[in-house]
Amino acid sequence: MTHRPSNRRRNSWVVSLLDVQPADQILEIGFGPGLAVAELSRRVGGSGHVYGADHSDVMLRQATRRNASAIAAGRVTLSRAPVDQLPATLGGPFDAILAVNSLGFWPAPAERLNELRRLLRPGGRIAIAAQPRCPGATAATSRHAARTIEALLTGAGYTGTRTETLGLDPPVVCVLAVNPDPARDGGSS
Ligand SMILES: C[S@@+](CC[C@H](N)C(=O)[O-])C[C@H]1O[C@@H](n2cnc3c(N)ncnc32)[C@H](O)[C@@H]1O
Fold first, then answer.
1. Are 177 and 114 in contact (CB under 8 A)?
2. How far apart are CA 76 and CA 79, in angstroms?
3. Cα 187 to ligand 1 centre (Å)
4. How far apart are CA 122 and CA 104, in angstroms?
5. Considering the entire predicted model, what is its pTM?
6. Which atom of ligand 1 is nearest to the CA of 83?
7. pLDDT digits (tens, 9 = 90+) for 123-146
8. Residues enclosing ligand 1, CB less than 6 A?
9. What is the pLDDT of residues 95-114, one digit of tens each?
10. Ligand 1 atom 18: the closest Cα is on which residue?
């Protein structure tokens, strides 16, 4: 998974869309071999921190090896945890949450997105990316995936959804959205 050039491009492209700020507290769900975590940890500064949760021991080991120096420097914390049992000690509130090719594996993704929104600070952003891997996947498959993610995010209370596309084969789609800020938007979350 790690060595496919498309995996590197997909992960660094998603990170580039997140507009990472030096003090950001960021959570990735389903970090796999830790490519996005490595990119994120290069972008956060001394007061920022990257957290990750993945339910696989194998992925935790790979990502821990890849990010060993950032972990030792106190900029990254990785946990083995399924998305529906995130540890209370995980951290937060977060400025940004992301998941790359992971949401399709989650149990009850609508509920998970709702729980994740409560871990975001008001105004915090989320990026959910997908590159369909089913045989015969096309640009239409990617567009369908984006519409599904948009509907899930809206249903879970996020606002301002926007979809970006990376022209791989099949295309990668990334849906970005925001946890509404009642103080700024005049609504309730
Ligand atoms: C296809 S891999 C993508 C890995 C990485 N995001 C990337 O793009 O390189 C999906 C990842 O999601 C993780 N995952 C799947 N279901 C999960 C769950 N319920 N909770 C946490 N992680 C999960 C898997 O262990 C795996 O690392």
1. no
2. 10
3. 33
4. 26
5. 0.95
6. 20
7. 999 999 999 989 999 999 999 999
8. 1, 7, 11, 29-33, 35, 53-56, 59, 82-83, 100-102, 105-106
9. 999 999 999 999 999 999 99
10. 82
